[in-house]
Design goal:
Length: 344
């Protein structure tokens, strides 16, 4: 990690500490302690296992994507990648640092950097498609739970969905209507040039078109590998499910009665969508606020809700940061990870 990333890491922990402390100020510490000593730790362990499975499933996806170029890529090396990705997503605004970090980590693990970029791109596309499909289902099944009582929050949910849907729509246009999309992009830059003429705009046009061409070439490979896409899609669905269900086991650990598992999954999906709108690393503030509003609808004891927020952030956010730092320190096994002679 460079100095800039270390600063980001410090800011992430500082912001998180301020938010948690602000929540703790609203309740009696003695009440929080009483909730803490009655925790059913076995359910908290299950929540931790779910997060570990979340990263393990992604590691398996990486192995599948590398099967052709690096067939002996070990699970140990693969498991490092999502942890490092989580670390840099967690400490950078809008989670922009995750993809470059995982490409670099794959490269240092013996994978060609071009292949690393391809794996990152394919994983991103599949994840975006299924997160939108999943979110459509969540809106159908549970949007009525927030649209009435939490109208302002519902606007954030819809805005988050619209952004993710637009991203997927653009990706699909490049995949299946490449020539037409190029014309649209060129038309946009020609229109923009009327208002701002300069080399910078032309360089931006060239960069955008080059990235579109690169993505189109990778999408052709994806379309020619339906079995691989099916396997990674199933794994992505499983990855999302074990992540979204984490608050359910945290609430069980806190002796919350009559917990509706479907409602918890839907609410957690909504929270993740809201967090994506906040430029602050980890969505600090927005994450806790949305959790309070949504889960506060059936967790009526304030001390229990505050402790639930604290445990949720530890399991889904801070644990990944700590494991990501450990993954950075652990050196990858390079033996057997190099590209086979026949492929070079």
């Amino acid at each position: 990690m460079n100095r800039k990333n270390i600063i980001y890491l410090g800011i992430a922990f500082l912001l998180g500490g301020v938010v948690i402390w602000n929540e703790l100020r609203k309740v009696s510490l003695s009440e929080v302690y009483l909730e803490l000593v009655t925790i059913k730790w076995q359910w908290l362990v299950v929540a931790v296992i779910c997060m570990l499975l979340h990263w393990a499933v992604e590691a398996r996806m990486i192995q599948l994507f590398l099967k052709r170029s690096n067939p002996d890529f070990s699970f140990k090396n693969a498991f490092r990648i999502p942890l490092i990705e989580h670390l840099f997503n967690a400490i950078t605004p809008f989670s922009t640092g995750g993809q470059p970090a995982q490409i670099l980590a794959l490269g240092k693990s013996g994978v060609d950097y071009g292949v690393s970029a391809s794996v990152s791109l394919m994983k991103f596309v599949i994840y975006q498609i299924w997160i939108v499909v999943n979110f459509v289902l969540c809106i159908i099944l549970g949007f009525h739970w927030v649209s009435g009582n939490l109208e302002k929050l519902s606007y954030f949910i819809l805005i988050g969905f619209a952004i993710h849907f637009f991203v997927v729509f653009c990706l699909l246009m490049v995949m299946f209507w490449h020539t037409g999309t190029q014309k649209i992009v060129n038309g946009f830059f020609n229109l923009a040039r009327r208002f701002k003429i300069g080399r910078k705009l032309e360089r931006k046009r060239e960069s955008t078109l080059a990235k579109m061409d690169n993505f189109y070439e990778h999408s052709r490979y994806m379309k020619n590998e339906p079995v691989l896409m099916l396997k990674t899609s199933i794994l992505t669905i499983a990855q999302l499910l074990v992540y979204y269900i984490v608050p359910y086991f945290i609430l069980l650990a806190l002796n919350t009665e009559d917990v509706n598992v479907l409602k918890v999954i839907v609410f957690h999906a909504f929270i993740i969508m809201i967090i994506s709108l906040f430029p602050i690393p980890g969505g600090a503030g927005g994450a806790e606020y949305s959790f309070t509003l949504l889960f506060g609808t059936f967790v009526v004891i304030k001390s229990k809700l505050v402790l639930a927020i604290f445990l949720w952030r530890i399991v889904t956010y801070y644990m990944g940061i700590i494991l990501g730092l450990i993954a950075l320190v652990i050196q990858p096994d390079l033996d057997g990870n190099k590209v086979p002679e026949s492929d070079t």
